Amino acid sequence: MVPADSESEDGTRTRLVGLATQRGVSLSALSALIGRNTTYLQQFVRKGSPRKLEENDRRTLAEFFGVPETDLGASPRGGVITAGQGASRGVKPTRSMAAEWADIPRLPLGASAGPGTLPAEEIPSGRLRFNHRWLKGQGLEPAMLSVIEVEGDSMEPTLRDGDEILVDRTPRPLRAGIHVIRLDDVLLVKRLESGPGGTVRIISDNPAYPRLERSLNEVELVGRVVWKGGRL
Fold this sequence. Notes:
Structural class: alpha+beta
Strand order of the largest sheet: 2-4-5-10-6-7-8-9
Low-confidence stretches: 1-5, 78-98, 117-121
Helix content: 10-25%
Shape: elongated
Number of helices: 5
Distance between the termini: 64 Å
Order of helices and strands: HHHHEEEHEEEEEEE
Number of strands: 10
Radius of gyration: 21 Å
Mean pLDDT: 77
């Protein structure tokens, strides 16, 4: 006979995969959402390690999907209604039930605004907190966001060395703006514009740096820069 708690854990993994599929979000993106390395939830689903989701991780995922924590392995608590519960009882969730903040992982990649840096391992080194309402108003999905630090001066005065930028990794058609890209295995933050014949113009805001023009298929779009923060 299979122990009941083992069946429950298998059900949690199945439910998590189903929710991720419905939202079109990868397990690696969800791992980043909860501040873990990108293989964390894949190991949870495929290898059963960890055996259970930690309480804070479970809460963050439940709030992201809008489901009760019991869907992700929490023990039912008498009389307590969590986000997503109560609909069948005619109870409307209050604003306090929803998460007000999203903790976006900081990735120590060092997107270069100068000569370029080789990409490091994408394991979060911390988190930066953003208001869920603000993110929603910008059309941004927390699970598809990362914060990274700018290195170099080629994007001055728009971006300065040490600035932190919020990068939206949602796959979208290229449009003009500042993006994080990989070019020749180097991670860069540059302004992009569409060029003729399937090319893309790679522009540094600092006029001391030359412009480049490359075939679009030579440029890997990591994400679009949607916010910056830095010292005055």
